[in-house]
Design brief:
- The complex is a heterodimer of chains A (117) and B (113).
- By secondary structure, chain A is an all-beta fold.
- Chain A has one domain: Immunoglobulin-like, CATH 2.60.40.10.
- Chain A has no helices and 11 strands.
- Chain B contains no helices and 11 strands.
- Classes of the chains: A mainly beta (117), B mainly beta (113).
- Chains A and B meet through strand 4, strand 5 and strand 10 of A and strand 5, strand 9 and strand 10 of B.
């Protein structure tokens, strides 16, 4: 079974440029998460989807970040315009279900390492 | 505000000994707590999940305890091996009506031969 797929693996852009990340979750997983991880820190949740609905986007900087999960499968995360402080690893994860379902285990992709110059 | 502290930024253990990592939290009553392993350049990998009504969980050489009174979880690796060297993250679901996951900053564990 394929794991969570993310692309690109690495991205270098200049500040003020747009950037997009793509995630393909494990087949059948209803819940999809986007995290940002800074060096030496744990992942920080940006947005969580239950199927195609964003159920928690309280940590998503909505002035420059946007996300979508069309048809409840693949998802994209976009930053426009990027700032120097956005340099981080962006992780996508998926799980069969959310809290109380017994299927909370998250499976992470390898991440996209973003460097904003 | 909620806070998770993983004691010891780095832990160095002699091979064969038991490594014990700590996760302390404040202000919330999580429905469950998870432990993940993360190697450099890779995403976290799930290890164990323990629910609020469970005191202990085991999986091979791994053991997790969960004390909701102390608001603390301990993660043990027995008979540690150099291959266990990695960063270990704890994560809590602090949501009430809906899931809300927060991660600690991790503890970097090194097992020396």
């Amino acid at each position: 079974e394929a794991g969570v797929v993310q692309s690109p693996r690495y991205k270098i852009i200049e500040k003020k440029q747009p950037v997009a990340f793509w995630c393909n979750p494990i087949s059948g997983h209803n819940t999809l998460y986007w995290y940002r991880q800074n060096l030496g820190q744990g992942p920080e949740l940006l947005i969580r989807y239950e199927n195609e609905e964003a159920v928690d986007d309280s940590q998503l900087p909505k002035d420059r970040f946007s996300a979508e999960r069309l048809k409840g499968v693949d998802s994209t995360l976009k930053i426009q315009p990027a700032e120097l402080g956005d340099s981080a690893v962006y992780l996508c994860a998926s799980s069969l279900g959310g809290t109380g379902t017994g299927e909370e285990t998250q499976y992470f992709g390898p991440g996209t390492r973003l460097l904003v110059l | 505000s909620q806070k998770i502290e993983q004691n010891s930024e780095a832990l160095n253990i002699q091979e064969g000994k038991t490594a014990t990592l700590t996760c302390n939290y404040t202000n919330y009553s999580p429905a469950y707590l998870q432990w993940y392993r993360q190697d450099p350049g890779r995403g976290p990998v799930f290890l164990l999940l323990i629910r609020e009504n469970e005191k202990e969980k085991r999986k091979e050489r791994l053991k997790v305890t969960f004390d909701t009174t102390l608001k603390q979880s301990l993660f043990h690796i027995t008979a540690s091996q150099p291959a266990d060297s990695a960063t270990y993250l704890c994560a809590l679901d602090i949501g009430s009506s809906a899931s809300k996951i927060i991660f600690g900053s991790g503890t970097r564990l090194s097992i020396r031969p």
